[in-house]
C-alpha cells in the first residue's frame, strides 16, 4: 500500500463551508475501482481532502495490487475517525455502498455510522433542468462553473491502466491514476459554490422590494405583474434565468428578480361542505341552509361540489399548492388556483418571502 500526501493549492473556498459544518470537521472523499460491483471488482484508491492549520491537504491510499484492498480501507477509516461530516459526489449510491460491500467481503468491521454524509449529487439533482445541465456528472458541473482539470481520463478508461500497473508497475501509470483521483477530490472542493443553488431552494429568502407593474402585452392589452427583488442566502457563481407558467426568475450574485402575473377578474371560492348548502340558479351562488328559509323552494336546489361557490371580483396571484387560504378557482375542475391580494397581504413582507420561495420551487419543478 502507498500513502500519498500533498498540499492542495487552494487559498480560499468560494463557498462558506460552515453552512455545512465547521471546516475542520469536513472530510471530502472519492474512490477508484475496477468496476461497479464490489463482489467482482477491486477498490484500488481512496482519496480524501481535509483542512488543517496549513490549509487544504490531500491524502491518498493506493493499493499496489488487489490484495492490499483491506489495508487502504483500514487506513481510510482510521483517518476518518476524527471527522464528523463526509462530503462526496454520488457517494450514497456508489462509493459508500461499494466500501461497505467490500468490508463485508473482506470481513472488515468498519462502518460509516459516525459520519454524516453530504452528497453533492443528491442535493443538486432536483435542479438539473433549472441550471440547464445536460447531465449530472461531476465534470459537467465543473464545466458549468468554468473549472478545468489536468486529468483527461474517465474512471472507466483507467481500469486498464490500473490492471497494467499491477502487471508491470511504472511511475507514469501511477501518476495517471493518482492524478485522476486527485482532480476528482479537488473538484469536490471547487464545485462547492454550486451548493448556492441548493441553498436558494432550501434556505429562507427575503423579499427586499415588492411592487406591482403595468405593461402592454403583445396584443396591446394592459396587464399587471408582481415584481420582487429577493436577497439570497449565498451569492451564486453563474447567473441563471428560468421561467415556467408565465413566471420568470433572474438570478445573479446575491440577488434574484422574480416576475409573476397578476390576474384581475372574477373568481370562485368553493365551499367544501356542499351538502350543507343550496344553490340559487338565478343568483349563481350558494347559500348555507341555515339562511335558506328566506328563499322560496322553487328558487333553490341542493348544491353540488361543482356549484357550491361564491364569486368575487378582485386581484389575484397564482399558486400551485395551497400556500395561502382561502384559495379561488375559475371553475370547479380547474387545476389553476389563486389567492386574493388583500390589504393585509400587501403589507406583509413575510408572506411575499414565502410566496417567492413557492414560485421558485414551481419554476424548478416545471423547467424542462
How would you characterize the overall build of this protein?
This protein is α+β, with helices and mostly antiparallel strands and 368 residues long. The protein folds into two domains: 2-199, Ribonuclease H-like superfamily/Ribonuclease H (Nucleotidyltransferase, domain 5), CATH 3.30.420.10; 205-271 and 308-368, no CATH class. It is 26% helix and 31% strand. The strands form three sheets. Strands 7, 8, 9, 10, 11, 15, 16 and 17 form an eight-stranded antiparallel β-sheet that branches. α5 packs antiparallel against α6. The chain is elongated, with a radius of gyration of 29 Å.
CATH-derived architecture of the largest domain: 2-Layer Sandwich
**What is the helix/strand order?**
EEEEHEHEHHHHHEEEEEEEEEEEHH
Shape: elongated
In angstroms, what separates the terminal alpha carbons? Answer: 47 Å
Q: Helices and strands in order, then pairings?
A:
Elements: E1 2-7, E2 26-33, E3 43-52, E4 55-62, H1 69-80, E5 85-88, H2 95-106, E6 116-119, H3 120-124, H4 138-144, H5 158-167, H6 171-190, H7 195-202, E7 206-216, E8 222-231, E9 240-244, E10 247-252, E11 255-270, E12 277-280, E13 285-288, E14 301-302, E15 309-319, E16 327-328, E17 337-340, H8 343-346, H9 349-366
Parallel strand pairs: 2-5, 5-6
Antiparallel strand pairs: 1-4, 2-3, 3-4, 7-8, 8-11, 9-10, 10-11, 11-15, 12-13, 12-14, 15-17, 16-17
Helix pairs in contact: 5-6
Amino acid at each position: 500500500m502507498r500513502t500519498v500526501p500533498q498540499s492542495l493549492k487552494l487559498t480560499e473556498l468560494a463557498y462558506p463551508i460552515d453552512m455545512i459544518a465547521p471546516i475542520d470537521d469536513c472530510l471530502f472523499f472519492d474512490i477508484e475501482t475496477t468496476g461497479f460491483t464490489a463482489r467482482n471488482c477491486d477498490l484500488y484508491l481512496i482519496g480524501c481532502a481535509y483542512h488543517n492549520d496549513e490549509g487544504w491537504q490531500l491524502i491518498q491510499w493506493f493499493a499496489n495490487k488487489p490484495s492490499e484492498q483491506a489495508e487502504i480501507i483500514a487506513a481510510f477509516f482510521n483517518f476518518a475517525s476524527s471527522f464528523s461530516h463526509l462530503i462526496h459526489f454520488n457517494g450514497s449510491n456508489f462509493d459508500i455502498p461499494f466500501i461497505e460491500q467490500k468490508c463485508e467481503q473482506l470481513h472488515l468491521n468498519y462502518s460509516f455510522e459516525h459520519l454524516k454524509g453530504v452528497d453533492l449529487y443528491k442535493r443538486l439533482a432536483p435542479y438539473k433542468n433549472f441550471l440547464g445541465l445536460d447531465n449530472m456528472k461531476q465534470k459537467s458541473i465543473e464545466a458549468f462553473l468554468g473549472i478545468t482539470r489536468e486529468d483527461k481520463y474517465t474512471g472507466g478508461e483507467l481500469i486498464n491502466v490500473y490492471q497494467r500497473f499491477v502487471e508491470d508497475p511504472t511511475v507514469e501509470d501511477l501518476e495517471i491514476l493518482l492524478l485522476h483521483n486527485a482532480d476528482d477530490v479537488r473538484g469536490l472542493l471547487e464545485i462547492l459554490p454550486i451548493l448556492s443553488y441548493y441553498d436558494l431552494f432550501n434556505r429562507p429568502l427575503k423579499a427586499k422590494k415588492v411592487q406591482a407593474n403595468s405593461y402592454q402585452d403583445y396584443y396591446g392589452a394592459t396587464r399587471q405583474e408582481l415584481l420582487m427583488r429577493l436577497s439570497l442566502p449565498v451569492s451564486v457563481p453563474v447567473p441563471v434565468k428560468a421561467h415556467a407558467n408565465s413566471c420568470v426568475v433572474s438570478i445573479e450574485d446575491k440577488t434574484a428578480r422574480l416576475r409573476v402575473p397578476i390576474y384581475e377578474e372574477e373568481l370562485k371560492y368553493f365551499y367544501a361542505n356542499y351538502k350543507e348548502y343550496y344553490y340559487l340558479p338565478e343568483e349563481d351562488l350558494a347559500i348555507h341552509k341555515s339562511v335558506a328559509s328566506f328563499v322560496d323552494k322553487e328558487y333553490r336546489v341542493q348544491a353540488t361540489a361543482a356549484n357550491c361557490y361564491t364569486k368575487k371580483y378582485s386581484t389575484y396571484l397564482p399558486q400551485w399548492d395551497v400556500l395561502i387560504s382561502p384559495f379561488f378557482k375559475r371553475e370547479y375542475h380547474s387545476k389553476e388556483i389563486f389567492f386574493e391580494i388583500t390589504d393585509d397581504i400587501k403589507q406583509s413582507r413575510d408572506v411575499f418571502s414565502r410566496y417567492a420561495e413557492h414560485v421558485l420551487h414551481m419554476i424548478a419543478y416545471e423547467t424542462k
